[in-house]
Amino acid sequence: MGNITSAARRVRLSRPLFAMVTAAAAFSLGACGVIAESDDQNRSAAASAPASESPTPTRTPAPNPTPGKGPACPELRCTSITVTGDMLVHTQLWQQARADAAAAGLPGYTFVPLLEGQRRYIRNSDLAICHQETPVAAPEGPFSAYPSFNVPPQIITASKDVGYQACTTASNHTIDRGTEGLLRTLDALDAAGLKHTGSYRTEAASKEILMLESDAAKVAVIIGTYGHNGQIPEYPWLVDELDPAVMIAKATQARALGADIVLGVMHAGDEYASEANVQQQDVAHALVDSGQFTMIYGHHTHSVLPIENYKGTWIVYGLGNGVTELSPWYVLNNEGLLVRAQFSQNAAGAWTASDLAWAPSVIVRDPYRWCSVASDAPQGVCASPGADAATHQRTKTVVESMGAAAAGAHELLITKEK
């Protein structure tokens, strides 16, 4: 869960702060960042060679289209990225994971059945990024839930199993278990083969840029969290903070290192809200105004928030929960949003989001499962026909409340795709 963002955090960025962005970005380029790439190093020379155009290095479009997965590619080169919300494991979920493991004749815990519904969506995307909200414990525990999380690391192996390539890790719960818990989480991600960014082992690592790679593009991921529930990290570089100047500086660095697409990720907002607060809007707009980011998205509120098209750039303010327990008090807590963006490179070398699609989801119990309530009902009935319809309508109303539909965002109907 986490603390509700206080009114004191809803502070607009001052003009002097925003004016510092350019100087901060220029300064960052003096530091050399190491790029963490995907495992596939066998990219063709045409796909990996940066273009000579300035100011931002881009790839020369291939002579033959590289369509990627998802909708038809409108340009010479396309890639698609799926993102989801908080992986927030409470007691009920690890009890379910233990029961699922026993039913399968496996020892310990398995969260794969919980996440299985996401696999079909991820499979129809070139890249997928999750958010590991909390630190993980040793495989056999001891475990704890709110307010100081220490959850089974099998949630990480399950995320890898259903198809995620990377997870962000900066949140208000990152240091719930101190530096030791943070390091244990990074070890678990590495062991599972998941790339990660947002928390770090060393100061040098904190200056690196996470770079993922599809057949068509290099994708940089840059995240910041609004706070740590009153805790103070042992070192200031342990966790990425929600500082637009720093995030823009990293994005500028990523562009210089060859990123085609830069994703800005915000862990911020008011819990159980249906609107983005002032801090979220100001930070997101500042990132877009910098010209360095291709899309912005966020999580933390445990509720779905609107999607906005701001100056031609998509901002997905809140994805809700990737997984969580079934709350009897906050129905919004049980809902989430899976978003897939398709990015296209035109003949001039510029990358933009050519398609933005969303699928609403809900957590159900007996057994606990992530379940899509999209109009095509790819998993069948989730809770009940009436409850599913209510979740769908509530999500659609919120998602489209800032003009997303008019700007072209639409529901993702995965059964209609090959």
Structural class: alpha/beta
Shape: globular
CATH level-two architecture: 4-Layer Sandwich
| SSE ordering | HEHEHHEHEHEHEEHEHEEEEEEEHHE
Strand content: 15-25%
| Helix content estimate | 25-40%
- Please report the first level of CATH classification, the CATH class: Alpha Beta
Global Rg: 20 Å
Number of helices: 11
Main sheet properties: 9 strands, mixed
CATH topology: Purple Acid Phosphatase, chain A, domain 2
For the record, the count of structural domains works out to 1
The average pLDDT score comes to 88
Which ranges are low-confidence, i.e. pLDDT below 50, for 5 or more consecutive residues? 1-57
> What is the end-to-end distance?
37 Å
Number of strands: 16
Overview of the structural elements:
By secondary structure, the protein is α/β, with parallel strands linked by helices. The chain has a single domain, classed as 4-Layer Sandwich (Purple Acid Phosphatase, chain A, domain 2), CATH 3.60.21. The chain is 28% helix and 22% strand. The protein is built from 11 helices and 16 strands. Strands 2, 3, 4, 5, 12, 13, 14, 15 and 16 form a 9-stranded mixed sheet that branches. It has a 7-stranded mixed sheet with strand order 1-6-7-8-9-11-10, covered by helices on one side. Strand 8 (261-267), helix 9 (278-289) and strand 9 (295-299) form a beta-alpha-beta unit. Helix 1 (15-28) packs parallel to helix 8 (244-256) and helix 4 (112-123) runs parallel beside helix 5. The longest helix is centred in the middle third of the chain and has 15 residues, at 178-192. The chain is globular, with a radius of gyration of 20 Å. The model is unreliable at 1-57 (pLDDT under 50).
